[in-house]
Design a protein that fits this description.
The protein has a domain of 138 residues: Orthogonal Bundle (Transferase(Phosphotransferase), domain 1), CATH 1.10.510.10. 53% of the residues lie in helices and 5% in strands. The protein has six helices and four strands, in the order αββββααααα. α3 runs antiparallel to α5. It comes from Monoraphidium neglectum. GO terms for molecular function: ATP binding; protein serine/threonine kinase activity.
C-alpha cells in the first residue's frame, strides 16, 4: 500500500478503493499481497459525480465514498482500519446490517465499529485514527506501518512474558507436587517404622 500510494515518475498514486480480506492474499511464508485492482484508480482520475455512489464494498468504505465525493488514498486507510478491526474481532464488520443500513450508519450517522475485546490500546488508537471523518486527518500508510510494527513488538513481548510466567507457574507446581510426594513417602516410611516398633514391642511383651 505504501508503494501504491507513493507517486513517482513511473506511476501516479493508485487508490485501490476495495481493500478487504478477500483482496489480500497470504503467501505460505506469511507475506501479504494486495490483489484485485478492478476498481482502482489513479489519484488524478478519482473525481466522481456527487450524484452517485462510489464503487466498493460498503462494510469497508469510507464516508466520502458513500457521498460520491472525489476520493483520495485515505479511503484505503479507512478500509485498512476496518480490516485491522476484523482481524482483532474475528468476525465480519457490520454483519448484522444490510448495505443500505451500513451506508446510513457510517455515512450519515457517523457510527464506527465497537472496540474488540482484548484490543491493545495502541492498536485501537491506530484504528480510530484510520476512521477519522476528515480524510486528511487519517494517517498515511508510511506512518501506519511503523505503528503496526511497534504494536506487534509489544504484543510479542507481552506474549513472551506470559509464556515465561506460565513456565514459572508450571515449575512451581511441579516442585510442590514433588515435595508433596516426598512428604507422603516420608510419612509412609514413618508409619511402617511405627508398625514395626509396635510389632516388636508386642512380641517382647507376649
Amino acid at each position: 500500500m505504501i508503494y501504491l500510494h507513493a507517486p513517482s515518475d513511473a506511476k501516479p498514486v493508485v487508490v485501490h478503493r476495495d481493500l478487504k480480506p478477500q483482496n489480500v492474499l497470504l503467501h505460505e511464508d506469511g507475506r501479504a499481497k494486495v490483489c484485485d485492482f478492478g476498481i482502482s484508480k489513479a489519484f488524478t482520475a478519482t473525481a466522481a459525480s456527487s450524484t452517485r455512489l462510489q464503487p466498493g464494498t460498503p462494510s469497508y468504505m469510507a464516508p466520502e465514498q458513500f457521498e460520491g465525493r472525489p476520493v483520495t488514498d485515505r479511503v484505503d486507510v479507512f478500509a485498512f482500519g476496518v480490516l485491522l478491526w476484523e482481524c482483532l474481532a474475528r468476525r465480519q464488520p457490520w454483519r448484522e446490517l444490510s448495505a443500505m443500513q451500513i451506508i446510513f450508519a457510517v455515512g450519515i450517522q457517523g457510527e464506527r465499529l465497537p472496540r474488540p475485546s482484548g484490543c491493545p490500546d495502541g492498536l485501537w488508537a491506530l484504528i480510530e485514527s484510520c476512521w477519522r471523518e476528515a480524510p486528511e486527518q487519517r494517517p498515511p500508510f508510511n506512518a501506519i506501518l511503523p505503528a503496526v510494527e511497534e504494536e506487534i513488538g509489544l504484543v510479542d513481548a507481552a506474549e513472551q512474558q506470559e509464556r515465561q510466567r506460565q513456565q514459572e507457574r508450571q515449575q512451581q507446581q511441579e516442585k510442590q507436587q514433588q515435595q508433596q510426594e516426598e512428604d507422603e513417602q516420608r510419612a509412609a516410611g514413618l508409619g511402617r517404622q511405627m508398625e514395626l516398633a509396635m510389632y516388636i514391642h508386642d512380641m517382647r511383651c507376649g
